[in-house]
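User: Here's a protein and a ligand (FE2/S2 (inorganic) cluster). What would the complex look like?
Assistant: Let me lay out the input and then the predicted complex.
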Amino acid sequence: MGKWTRRGFISAGVIAGGGLIVGVAIRPGNRASELSKHVTDDDETLLHTWVKLDSNNVVTAIVPHSEMGQGVGTALAQMLADELDADWSLVKFEEAPAISEFANYPMAKGMLLAGADLPDFVVPTVDGVLILSAQALDLQITGGSASVRATGHYGMRVAGAAVKEMLRIAAAQAWHVPVDQVVARDSQLIHEETGRSEPYSAFAAAAAKMTPPASPALKRPDEFKIMGRDVQRHDLPSKVDGTAIFALDVRMPNMLYATVRRAPTFSGGVENIDDTVTRSIEGVVDVVQLPPAEVNALVGGFSSAESVAVVAEGYWQAKKGMDALNIQWRATENDAVSSDTIFAQFERDISAGVDRQSDASEGDLNASMTNAAKVIDADYRVPFLAHTCMEPLNATAVVEDGYCEIWIGCQSPLGFRQAVADSLGFEVENVTLNNCFMGGGFGRKSRADYAIQAAQLAAKVGRPVQLIWSREEDVRQDFYRPAVQSRFRGALDEVGNLTAWENTYAGKMEPAEAPLIPYTVAAKEIGYVASPTHVPLGAWRSVDHSQHGFFTESFIDEVAVAAGQDSYEYRAARLKHLPRQLAVLRKAATEAQWDIPLAPGRGRGIALQECFGSIVAEVVEVTVNDDNLSVDRVVAVIDAGYAVSPDGMKAQIESGIIYGLSAALYGEITIQDGAVVQSNFHDYPSVRMSKAPAIETHIINSGEAMGGAGEPGTPPIAPALANAIFNATGKRIRQLPIKNSVLNV
Amino acid sequence: MTLITVNGTEQKLQVDPATPLLWVLREQLELTGTKFGCGIAQCGACTVHINGVAMRSCVTPVSAVAGQNISTIEGLAPSPDELHPLQQAWIDEQVPQCGYCQSGQLMSAAALLAKNPSPSDGDIDDAMSGNICRCGMYSRIRKAIKLAAGVQQFDPALVDVGQGLTNG
Ligand code: FES
Ligand code: FES
């Protein structure tokens, strides 16, 4: 990032009580050519950051990202408060309402012009749809680990610095002293010579009349006071006493409850439905068929089939009613598809290599293969995965007189608002979306299917409706992390140097660079064949990095073993051109005491992956006793450029590791007769307390461009674990989940 | 009509006696701190205390708890301006991520400490493994339980046991 010249546009105004409100708008400066096609109006501006200063000297940051657990509001408020030199105890934040003035434009811009990370919910392919979406829909998306690095950097910090400059000028004018003698500190303005000191709020009204500075000076890292410090998250008190309001907790007078079901084969509609028994159940109000829907206006090509809803006085009655329905689903052309046929298809398509697209091509692959002293081959596989956010999908809607209000937890409030408006045939101005705390998101809550269903139900029954998906529906109607097969061939010379790396996999989403390797190699050819299936796909924490991290970091381990070398040293020797990667890998090995041998039956594995601008290495220690696997310890190192909220970053890494560990050990969505077999936590398990390893996270502040924290912890855990198992047992895990291997997990 | 006592208040309910307690709490009594996560006693999000014992309210028909003492996350703190030591420890260790599982985690932990004021790691594993945290905050939960175990003074679960016995 940082390639574009910011032409910030900062505006100021007065709020009730004489306080100050400042908005930062950004418009394209250096017009990258792709961008200029779509951003046609030179005066186009999108406010994305607002800050309020009230008469009690309290600063409120208005944050254009959704809180799904990552503490984003706190980190963004820290960035604003630091530049403002505010007293942290006088800083609050609130989530921006879902209106386009708060569009998360810098996220689009940051990703577009950095050219690298394009999360799925923004764009299915790297072909410019992003640009169209950004313009057409106004982004207000939480994803791509982008909150801190884009919004924080370009929005919050600039806003804080601008407000501070205005206040200093206002104080200097009031006190008749030169502005460079006015110091801002802890929400006070101070003139040392005369000993004068007054709170920021005393100058709010005067500042509100000024033209804000166009490009206020930002602090150097050594001047940070609040950034880089552990602060308590503001949202936690409400999360320990039950008062935090998730969408599921919304209560309205006269509200009904509903639950839904779609065809197990995804695309099959309703052939026939017998609802006699259901309608006789006390409390059941209606049985409603909902039409197919375009589920996400942000990405083309995804639609979800029609569904059947039961509306009742309570969820329990709705659920009983649903279970009593006799629905015959239409047959589809996918009714014979299974995981076996899907992997057979991947196998066939990879072998045929038809229309293979290349991600990276370097050197003379054939020569390296022909001259190799040793060639090794391996095929890896990962299954489809569901997200299983702790809070099942739900939304509450009211539709009245051409107006819709909806309460939901989602990762893209503006996109959802648009989708709801489209589904009802309303102008977007006639839809109000209230984004609540999210009980997990992980990528699932960027698809608007559940919002559309709730809105349509409310329109149909004419009363407020809370739609709650059962966990079974949540598992069976997800947009899944893709199942992927990946084939490798590696060549080594007489002394074990890696001379060729060939990789073909079936199925690609993004980001484009996920399958690339950082290691020096004379020749490489990495690419994919499209091998589509009928299973709906979506972004899953870290997107393609989660599967490719497992593939490439396992296969490089196989190469090191084939070379007869230590797998950490082998990696390090091939990272000399990438000092950040090397430093992260080294620190992980050092902190994990890589060179101290373990007892028999124990093993260590290492893995490294760059993901959304952050570099993470993890070392896993396992014990394998009579084929019983225990994951004892994980040491993680992250270089995300700079950690604004170090403890928050550690929490995110811990979270990413456990999420990835659940997938590595147990996570598997299997398809049979075209439908998902699993249904709830008993057959789609998660890591629990007794299986959770001790986790140690170390942060490197390299000072490079900021990367994300929400996703990068996930990719290295599966390969580090598989490599540790190999180290302990000599058994190579090439297919996930590990529960399907000989090991007991 | 079913009579239950929730957080010390007696409630008269007109509901299908087969309705799980979870939905009665959330819908009839509007105590929404207790969460729905799976509906089949697999995740622990719906954990409440019934006579001091941690139970999954999603599979407990309201008829089965008639006349019993129920406490929920809303009743965990000893008073409106005082936190339960576990709640304080949860904040000190910055435990919650999304926070959705945490009512259930806290209720399981409170029942554990009421019985066993200084639990071992194994005791913590046993008591807490019915509670899933998809945000994976297990190490923080473990630390917070140990922190609170050092300062445990008040426990509503114990009070519930007492009342439960008196009520027969
Ligand atoms: S909702 Fe009761 S255990 Fe999951
Ligand atoms: S904090 Fe999110 S599920 Fe536990």
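Summary: Residues A 69, 390, 440; B 96-102, 133-135, 137 surround FE2/S2 (inorganic) cluster (ligand 2) (CB under 6 Å).
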